[in-house]
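Problem 12. The chain below contains 275 residues. Write out its predicted structure in token notation.
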Amino acid sequence: MKSYAHDNLHYFRFETLPGNGASNGTPAVDHAVFSRRGGYSIGPFDSLNMSMSVPDERDRVYANRRRVYGLYGRDTDTVVHAHLVHGAAVARVTSADNGTWVEHVDGLITNQPGTVLSMNFADCTPIFLYDPRRHAIGLGHAGWRGTMVDLPGAMVRAMTAQFGSDPADLVAGIGPCIGPCCYEVGEEVIAAVEATFTEPDTLFRPLTGDDRLTAAGHRFFDMPQANQRNLTNAGVRNIETSGLCTACRTDLFFSHRAEKGRTGRFGTVFALGRD
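Solution.
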């Protein structure tokens, strides 16, 4: 990913995904993962908190959203959000859904120009999918539960069913999330990984002498690699990972784990512009 700044906003873009503009007469595609910098929130939500699900001041959150969505010529009521449930449900949306919150889904897909997708994060994995042939996009949210039920694969299959996408044509981005350096997990997650993936031991970081586990038997889970494997198993070949750990980089991102739950949510946007 590359880092960008505009009007005191700090954000990241994948190098393999389109950003800011159209080519060859196709609809413009833009995307960004926003850092926590450049907003109006204070205290543990300092400063670009995008979520109302935390006890931040409502007016500050709306001001933050206006800053972010304004880059796309929108306001907070003209993008598509999702009420996330840590599952594998995926919804197809259109520009008619701009300004709505889609219930009980963790993936949004569209092929209609004029549609802007947005989700918020604080350790879970942002999943971006782009089909350059069908001019379709998808944005997803995969925590450890969503990883186990293969939210990334569900998004790929939904784009294939809805748009005729060939998984081999898709370009995927795995955004900043908690990494294997920091993601200590216990028996529930370990058992789920072992039941879900082949060669599960490869998805846990080897322990070092410097590691200080909070309980015996815990391990460090590599969630980005697990989601990369999900995408590969779904037939996606072109996958870029951010390499950024949200728990390590609380200067850049909100982290539920590192900040013990009292924190904000950073925003992501995936926009399919008008023809």
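Discussion. The chain is about 20% helix and 25% strand. Students who got a different answer should revisit the alignment rule from Section 12.3.
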